[in-house]
């Protein structure tokens, strides 16, 4: 698939380089100047100048000749999340879901064709997974993402798939657009989406979309857990019922907040 990206007419090269460096620091969980220069194919002196400027402005920190993303980004990220009222509205029901199931409850929204985790609640039996607040993921291989895609216009779904593709992360990932559209129709009919180890081996998920008064999808909430506890009736009936009830309350609070 080709990429259909909304590109800036006159992108600022230095801004793009700064962002590449910050993202590389995040992905590497810290790095030395030499490593970044090699990874990004940039002169070592240029990378050092960028990092020195970012350190001066308190966006990165230096420790033992390694640079790390600074906590100032946390303040910016929190502000970005707080502009989404769905975070505060959904939080009480997510806490209830985590308590009732003992599993992990997640809240995801779509931005630029990717899913972004903006909140999670941890039940007493919840397993640790790689999904963290702020993490961006593909939409086609998660229950949350499929719940959102199912309620977007078909042309928007095609645009997202064209831009980001459908990479396989497990042998269960749906990688054929026609198969995905068939499943999205089923999700609209039953009201919930299932992730059958499509993003992570051993992890299953049930998700439900959150719609506003205009029936536009504003996010999705899920319960996820290990295959051993997410099977049979609990996976197909019990947790979906809990999710539908929670989403009903969330949607009412959105409508009448």
TrEMBL record:
Residues 12-71 form the HTH iclR-type domain. The keyword Ubl conjugation does not apply. PANTHER family: HELIX-TURN-HELIX TRANSCRIPTIONAL REGULATOR, ICLR FAMILY (PTHR30136), HTH-TYPE TRANSCRIPTIONAL REGULATOR RV1719 (PTHR30136:SF35). This is IclR family transcriptional regulator. SUPFAM superfamilies: GAF domain-like, Winged helix' DNA-binding domain. Residues 72-256 form the IclR-ED domain. GO terms for molecular function: DNA binding; DNA-binding transcription factor activity. One of its GO terms (biological process) is negative regulation of DNA-templated transcription. Keywords: DNA-binding, Transcription, Transcription regulation. Signal peptide: none annotated. Gene3D superfamilies: 3.30.450.40, Winged helix-like DNA-binding domain superfamily/Winged helix DNA-binding domain. The keyword Transcription applies.
């Amino acid at each position: 698939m080709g990429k259909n990206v909304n590109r800036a007419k006159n992108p600022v090269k230095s801004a793009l380089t700064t962002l590449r460096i910050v993202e590389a620091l995040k992905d590497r969980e810290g790095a030395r100047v030499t490593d970044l220069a090699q990874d990004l194919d940039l002169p070592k002196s240029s990378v050092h100048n960028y990092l020195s400027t970012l350190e001066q402005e308190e966006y990165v920190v230096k420790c033992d000749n390694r640079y790390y993303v600074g906590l100032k980004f946390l303040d910016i990220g929190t502000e970005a999340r707080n502009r989404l009222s769905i975070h505060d509205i959904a939080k009480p029901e997510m806490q209830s879901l985590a308590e009732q199931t003992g599993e992990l409850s997640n809240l995801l929204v779509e931005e630029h064709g990717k899913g972004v985790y903006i909140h999670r609640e941890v039940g007493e039996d919840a397993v640790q997974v790689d999904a963290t607040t702020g993490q961006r993921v593909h939409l086609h291989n998660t229950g949350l993402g499929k719940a959102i895609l199912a309620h977007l216009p078909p042309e928007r779904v095609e645009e997202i798939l064209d831009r980001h593709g459908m990479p396989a992360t497990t042998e269960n990932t749906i990688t054929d657009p026609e198969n995905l559209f068939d499943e999205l129709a089923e999700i609209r009919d039953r009201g919930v989406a299932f992730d059958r180890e499509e993003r992570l081996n051993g992890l299953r998920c049930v998700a439900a979309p959150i719609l506003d008064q205009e029936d536009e999808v504003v996010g999705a909430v899920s319960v996820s857990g290990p295959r051993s506890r997410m099977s049979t009736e609990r996976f197909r009936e019990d947790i979906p019922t809990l999710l539908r009830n929670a989403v009903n309350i969330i949607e009412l609070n959105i409508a009448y907040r």
